[in-house]
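Colleagues,

For the teaching module next term, I've prepared a clean inverse folding example: a structure given as tokens, and then the sequence designed for it. I'd like students to try predicting residues themselves before seeing the answer, so please don't circulate the second half yet.
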């Protein structure tokens, strides 16, 4: 073996140079440094059978964002005298092969708490340890180490935001210099027989046949993320007074929140650096406080990461001890109408179009469509909506997506199932003219404003003039919100009562019985209603 230290920096998330402790460690006292990204064909290769363009795991917008982030990382590495080595294959097998072939004695990568990475990392670490390769896996994706918080809490994750904050206190690095500039990196060593690629284009990956009439305005990469952060910070008043859930979900030319989530997801932006920048703005000015402040949003992120790590089966209803067991329906017909923006409610459909085209929607827009699909109107299982978001969001994040779906479906964290978002009046409050709807659903662009949120109420003459006949050019409503939401409340009430009676230990059999009872009651109520109507018309 050649003398000196041979380090491999394995990029997965943390696609950045700034505040990247794994990269700093890998470059320190190394004779050669191999910066590697492995393209997993299962994540990137086209899947023509999927419901939207993209691979079997990710929609096209997120794949594009990732490729842009990799190109940006490659050019930053080149400026430092290095480059990104792109390999293709099974990530664990590929990394193990590189460790062997390049005689690596130090492997560095950012710690990742997602189940996918936990099992991947276990395999790679086990090989490294048997081969005498030093591993360095710092926690730098989140503000805190979620494992430490769970330990502090006696081995269980805190289940409320307030208890999380109390345990977390201040991050240890709060006033340290995180962003130590790297002026150069060690050279890349000989790559032997390993096949190295440039960062591929979408077309090179085989994604050539998709045509979108409107692309996402959000470009991937650390440079873009830092630029966006700089823009956000330049409006110090806005940062200091930020309060969520205030803010207009229908604002799309200039979104009402930072849209830094995709950059945080891929680690193009360090959440710790973002935190320090917000704190700098807060110095000496009056500012909002958690949970509603901008800093408070980052704490929500860490809260969900911690609960997700400490909760077995966090991404499922079954076997998840913090999740209420609810007899959701499995209706694919309703799911597809929601997913394909065909519910007949323009506010809901416009949001679903924005999600598909842009891969990002405002937080309250996420609330509206998630509530509508689950406990608000359609009573479809939250896991199905979660899967759609997981595919289409650029910022799709395992802990945050599951955590928020649990929240919105009143399965965990939040239990006021009587509070339902109206698919008509909620959006109207922010955007009475329906500009958001007109943009994302151009079929309704000429609908007069008094009908834009409820086009089925428009007289036929108005529909004809607007060139939009309901039931022909735009779908009829899949459900009537008034009766559907009443029905959902009743079902949630009965499901909650069952969970309480059985102390959460609800079996599959109990759920099947409850589902049957609810259906029988529904049919009896329908029959009574029908006979009353008939009597009245006699
Ligand atoms: P800002 O308001 O500017 O907040 C700054 C950052 O704080 C965000 O980028 C994000 O990292 C964090 N943050 C903000 N709100 C939350 C929250 N409620 N929970 C956790 N972290 C938060 N966010 C994701 O990043 N990925 C997801 O897959 C995801 N899925 C969601 C699914 C549903 C059903 C809902 C209701 C919310 C989901 N969110 C998710 C949370 C939130 O909607 C987004 O983080 C936020 O809208 C992103 O926009 P922003 O960057 O402008 O947020």
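(Answer key — instructors only)
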């Amino acid at each position: 073996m050649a003398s000196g230290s041979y380090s491999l920096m394995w990029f997965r998330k943390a696609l950045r140079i700034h505040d990247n402790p794994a990269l700093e460690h890998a470059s320190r006292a190394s004779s050669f440094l191999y910066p590697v990204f492995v393209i997993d064909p299962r994540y990137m290769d086209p899947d023509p059978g999927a419901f939207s363009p993209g691979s079997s795991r990710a929609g096209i917008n997120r794949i594009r964002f990732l490729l842009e982030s990799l190109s940006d990382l490659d050019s930053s590495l080149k400026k430092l005298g290095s480059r990104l080595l792109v390999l293709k294959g099974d990530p664990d097998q590929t990394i193990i092969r590189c460790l062997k072939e390049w005689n690596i004695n130090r492997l560095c990568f950012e710690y990742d708490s997602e189940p996918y990475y936990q099992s991947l990392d276990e395999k790679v670490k086990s090989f490294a340890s048997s081969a005498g390769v030093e591993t360095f896996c710092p926690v730098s994706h989140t503000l805190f180490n979620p494992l430490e918080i769970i330990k502090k809490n006696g081995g269980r994750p805190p289940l409320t935001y307030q208890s999380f904050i109390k345990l977390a206190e201040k991050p240890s690095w709060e006033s340290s210099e995180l962003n130590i500039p790297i002026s150069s990196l060690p050279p890349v060593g000989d790559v032997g027989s390993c096949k190295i690629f440039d960062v591929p284009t979408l077309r090179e990956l085989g994604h050539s046949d998709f045509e979108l009439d409107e692309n996402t305005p959000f470009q991937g990469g650390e440079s873009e993320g830092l630029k966006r952060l700089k823009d956000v910070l330049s409006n110090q008043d806005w940062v200091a007074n930020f309060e969520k859930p205030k803010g207009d979900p229908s604002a799309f030319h200039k979104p009402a929140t930072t849209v830094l989530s995709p950059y945080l997801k891929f680690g193009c932006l360090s959440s710790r650096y973002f935190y320090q920048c917000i704190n700098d703005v807060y110095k000496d000015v009056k500012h909002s406080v958690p949970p509603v402040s901008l800093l408070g949003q980052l704490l929500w992120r860490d809260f969900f990461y911690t609960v997700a790590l400490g909760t077995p089966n966090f991404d499922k209803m079954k076997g998840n001890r913090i999740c209420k067991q609810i007899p959701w329906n499995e209706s694919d017909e309703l799911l597809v109408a929601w997913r394909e923006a065909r519910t007949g409610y323009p506010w809901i459909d416009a949001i679903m179009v924005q999600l598909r085209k842009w891969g990002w929607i405002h937080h309250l827009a996420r609330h509206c469509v998630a509530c509508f699909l689950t406990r608000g109107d359609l009573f479809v299982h939250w896991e199905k909506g979660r899967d759609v978001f997981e595919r289409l969001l650029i910022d799709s994040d395992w802990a945050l997506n599951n955590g928020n779906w649990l929240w919105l479906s009143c399965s965990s964290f939040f239990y006021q199932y009587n509070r339902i978002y109206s698919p008509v009046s909620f959006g109207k409050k922010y955007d009475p003219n329906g500009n958001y709807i007109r943009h994302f659903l151009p079929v309704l662009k000429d609908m007069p404003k008094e009908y834009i949120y409820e086009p089925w109420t428009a007289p036929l003459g108005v529909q004809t003039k607007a060139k939009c006949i309901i039931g022909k050019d735009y779908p009829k409503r899949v459900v009537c919100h008034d009766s559907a939401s009443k029905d959902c409340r009743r079902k949630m009430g009965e499901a909650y009562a069952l969970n309480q009676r059985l102390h959460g230990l609800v079996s599959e059999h109990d759920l099947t019985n409850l589902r049957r009872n609810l259906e029988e009651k529904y049919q009896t109520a329908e029959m009574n209603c029908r006979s009353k109507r008939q009597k009245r018309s006699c």
